[in-house]
Amino acid sequence: MGSWYRTLSLTAMAMVVAVAESNACRANAAAPSVTIKQGAIEGFAQNDTNVFLGIPFAETTAGENRWKAPQPVAAFPNGHFAATSYGPSCAQAMSGTAITNQSEDCLSLNIWTPRQAAGRGLPVFVYIYGGAMVTGGSSNAQWQGFNMARNDVIYVNFNYPFGGDKSRIVLGGHSSGGVHVDHYLWNHPETFLAGAIEMSANAQSGPAIAPSGVALKQVVQDMLDAGVSLDCTAENYSLDCLRAADTYAFQTTYFNSTTNTWFSPSIDEITRFSNYTERFQSGKYPTSLPLLVGNSDQEGAIFGYVYGSENTDFSSWIRTFDADLAFVPEAELIAAYNESDYPSVSQMSGASYGDARFLCATDAMLQLRAAQQPTWIYRWFGNYSNVLPIPNLGPSHGSEVPFFHGGKECFSLLEDVTTAEQQLADYMLSWFVAWIKNPQAGPGWAQASPTDGPLARVGVPEHEEEIVMSTTGAYNTRCQNVYLPNYPYYPEVQNPVLLAEEA
User: Fold this and answer.
1) Considering only CA atoms, which of 88, 91, 11, 103 is closest in space to residue 53?
2) DSSP sequence for 257-289
3) 247-257 pLDDT, tens digit each
4) Residues whose CB falls within 8 Å of the CB of residue 462, separated by 6 or more in sequence, listed in order
5) Order of strands across the sheet with 39-42?
6) Which residues pair with 156 in a beta bridge?
7) Beta bridge partners of 46
8) pLDDT, tens only, 255-278
9) Neighbouring-strand partners of residue 471
10) How is 153-196 classified by DSSP, letter by letter?
């Protein structure tokens, strides 16, 4: 992860700045192009924007480069690159190409710029997609940059394992993308960023942590059991042996049934830390950086279904690797959730997941940061059944993302989009873009404060085109009473192999 941060900071940033600044001078070109030190990049015009897709910001991470720091791109073949289609997604926890083409030559970025640029020095918004650090890609229709670019914001997203004025770059992400944003901040206390947004998640949001070496050993055994030919065994595997295997060879049936297990991040005290309070108090965090954080009102609703096969017994669920709740005493968790408050035990279990991974992680970090850092918090209440893959989930995890992106093209794969949905998306985009352009001014409501402070309710039914103010204290009782006292013990490292055997 640390190597990804460094690659993004150096190579990708240089590319984005060069592309966006040069493109500002060619706003009227029929097919935009720009030349950087690696060669010419040729984009295309679409929907009143200039678009550059699939620009590589590092060499392939396959073969000998697997599990090593990404190497900067030396030069484009034949001196030019046709940036006209998305690059493949990185290797992930799903088999084959049914959802997305995968490759280890995946470190690419996409840029949308205004067609009629107002000049140089435009603000830049860099977005990191979510997917629990095991799935996802930059080509998802719900996060495209057309709406941002039409509002004079340069928009960038990228695949992972800036152009304006680099002092006006805002970094944002949702779910595991929000985790990456937070880790970036903890790794760069002297950051040049102008602002950051962490949607749903932060550095205390998971995924769960396994002991070093346990997970990869199990992956090797699974591969051998599946008939993959390797020059090593699970007892004496080496990275060199595994570098010789094809990407898809890792994606055995068992691997894909435990998608959040085998490649979770590790705490190395270099890129991911065990004590964020201590780090914050010692000045190793950018406390002057404007920060926007928030959650969906029912974050965990969708996870009641995602983990439906293992969460029907709450006392067992809270000890699983996926639940990532071992840092909270069992008695406290059982007392905190009343089965009669939920349609099913699975939905109650999903609520605990939403609390631990998202809502209460946000609340805990807010206690730490809001007293010193200019921070604003929102809560999403938009209730539309056509946004998430399972209907009638309400404002659950991820349902806000296409609205923050302004809808329109970002609604292109949704069915039965209403005028009201687009109006809400227009409203969300308007204040969000204004904040990206001037983070110090805030998004239009009062700054957060620890424990019980201003909270903006957005997307509230019958009040969609306004901010309805409330307080964090109206929603964080369980977070304050159950989770906050125990976050100093997070994460508790668990052995997923032993847990599976016990189950």
Assistant:
1) 88
2) HSTTTTT-----SSSS-S-HHHHHHTT-S-TTS
3) 888 878 777 66
4) none
5) 33-36, 39-42, 80-82
6) 111, 126
7) 49
8) 766 544 566 778 889 888 999 999
9) 454
10) -EEEEE-------GGGEEEEEETHHHHHHHHHHHH-TT---SEE
Tokens of 311: 């969460």
Specify the residue for token string 């990185």: 90
Fold of 276-489: Rossmann fold (3.40.50)
CB 298 within 8 A of CB 393: yes
The model's pLDDT over 171-212, given as tens digits with 9 standing for 90+, comes to: 888 998 899 899 999 999 998 888 999 999 999 998 888 887
Q: DSSP code of 8?
A: I
Comparing CA positions, the residue from 28, 73, 99, 125 lying closest to residue 435 is 125
The region that residue 142 occupies, defined by phi over 0 for left and psi between -120 and 50 for alpha, beta otherwise, is alpha
Task: Return all residues near 466 (Cβ < 8 A) that are at least 6 apart.
Answer: 460
DSSP state of 99: S
Q: Which amino acid is at 297?
A: D
Q: Is the pTM of this model over 0.70?
A: yes
Euclidean distance between CA atoms 345 and 300, whole angstroms: 13
Over residues 432-439, mean pLDDT: 93
Q: According to CATH, where is 3.40.50.1820 located in the chain?
A: 276-489
| Six token digits for residue 316 | 């067992």
For 151, what's the count of Cα atoms within 13 Å in the CB-facing half-sphere?
Answer: 21
Residue 6: per-residue pLDDT: 45
The Cα 142–Cα 150 span in angstroms is: 16
Tokens 């920060």 belong to residue: 291
Helix (H, G, I), strand (E, B) or coil at 298: strand
Q: From CA 387, how far away is CA 394, in angstroms rounded?
A: 10
C-alpha distances out from residue 426 to 89, 116, 118, 409, Å: 29, 21, 21, 12
Are residues 409 and 487 in contact, defined by beta-carbon separation less than 8 angstroms? Answer: no
Q: Would you list the DSSP string of 32-92?
A: -EEEETTEEEE-EEETTEEEEEEEESS---SGGGTTSPPPPP---GGGEEE-BSPPPBPP-
Q: Is 287 exposed, middle or buried (0-12, 13-18, 19+ CB in 10 A)?
A: middle
The reported pLDDT for the residue numbered 163 is 39
**Pair 124, 163: CB distance under 8 Å:** yes
Cβ atoms of residues 12 and 18 within 8 Å: no
DSSP 373-421: S-EEEEEE----TTTSSSTT--SBTTTTHHHHTTSGGGGTT-SS--HHH
434: amino acid identity, one letter = A
* Burial of 413 from C-beta contacts in 10 A (0-12 / 13-18 / 19+): exposed
Asked whether 380 and 401 are in contact (CB, 8 A), the reply is no
Q: Kindly state the DSSP code that residue 197 receives in the 8-state scheme.
A: E
13, containing H or E segment: helix 13-24
